[in-house]
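Problem: given the chain below (562 residues), write out its structure.
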Amino acid sequence: MKKLLALAVAIILALGCMSAFAVSGPIEGVDYPELPDGTLHLTVAVPNFGTDQTTTKMQKLWQEKMEEYLGVKLDITYTSGLAWNDYQGNEATNLAAKELADVNTYSQGSLVNEYGAAGVVLDVNKYAEYMKYYPEFVAGVIGGQEGINNPDGSSYVFWDGYDNDVNLAGGQSFSAYGYRFDVLKEFDLKPAETWDEFKDLCATLKGLIDSGEVEADYVLHNGASWMAFYRGFVGTFHTWDTLYWNGEEFAFGPIEDNFRLMLTELHELFEAGYINPEYQTDDSADNEATTGKVLIVPTNWAGSVVNTWNPQAEEGIEWGLAYLPQYEDFGAAWKWGSKITGKNLGTTRTMGIIINAETEYPEWVVSMIDYQYSPDIYLMLNWGVEGEDWELGEDGMRKYTAKFMDLPVGERPQALADEGIMSSASARTGIAFVPQIFSTIPSYGDAEPWWSPEKGYYEGRYWFDTAINGGPDSISPFDRAPLVKLTDEQQSAQSKLKSACEKYAKTEGNKFITGEDGYDITDDAQWEAYVEGLKSQYQGFDELLQIINENVDLDSLKYYND
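Solution.
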């Protein structure tokens, strides 16, 4: 009898332990494997965007919310911690060596497909039943689920998401020029609406520098040495700096006639002495902008003016923004990264999250990442905690609280980053990439100085005013490209073509601007040699472009009109 009683007690205790550790997953009606100790043990590889997000308040809240949703404990070991650029540089090597954490931030576009097909990276489509929130973002993609699937029906990435909560087609960076407003106002000048006006303005400003009326070294400077200087001008000349949809077909921008025309115009600006000859080697324009050494920066990152240049500028210096000038033959200049309305995964998917195919509990991992697409998570990480970090304004829009907004504007980004709030751009909490909310981006900065023909000089915000001032015709066809269905091998080839040919164009294209090594943009033979040299960077260049265009689904363009 005692033995039976002891056995009964043992069974009861065992059942009690099982009830403590046995879990019913977060999605009703879906079976999850039991975790032996009720804990999901994971390694996660994430980069450092300037602040160690893994120790912040928001990361702790992320884990609390995630554990509550999943119904299990999370034991996460964060690996890497490399700066973003260094992290990106290692991704291809790590994939080839199969050196992946369980979960990994990813930024190499279709390169992952060959490793997914080889069984290195998890096909997340095989775990679709463990997703509840990600499909809402997939539905916003051209073609929906089919639009992100590979030809065999696989998909190896949770792609970076966006919630365009204000439904404006605002642009990403490189969609406005930075001007020294203090100089323009002093001499009764204004930003340029057209390319001819831009050249005239450069000449006028150069004259003011030469006469000593304006203390500056050069009119024009590049935003940073890693940026191709021509990146600030491709939209004006209706071309692009890589492989793109030009409205009729996929083409490689740096060999188009419009690109050559742009280089011709930039060479003239260089020869006239308007451009700082060190534009290819200076790490950043921040010093030149804040000390008054330059008057126009056509390649600036969104937020540079309001968050860095003006707060740090010497007394009397005021930077402002104006939309890109248009070339008369082409109409409204194209901006980069025009947002799609609603929830979506963007139009050019390169970044996201990948899962090691050998992770022990893929069902739980998929549901964990999927939950990052819930407003419960991405609203919190974008804005922080309601009442503590943000509150609703009288206009019904969220705004940051006084603990941030009472700080000098230049200190706000780091204060937000220290809390792990994503809009700082220096902390990507959760597991990067968590969806971004469109209206969050400009919200911690003061209103930016802007200029438009309709309003003159006024206060605006980058992500809104690039949509308003550019107008609907400023949306690049590349940002509304049709669906293209390529095999894994073809997608990998496309990525390799872009990488090799972009690098060649940045090096050799700049020589046409400066005239280095005797490069003459007006010499047809030299231009043809450049084109052939670029194509030689990828064997089968023309054949691959033909394959891409043969697989364009023009009917998918209807998506943008629906």
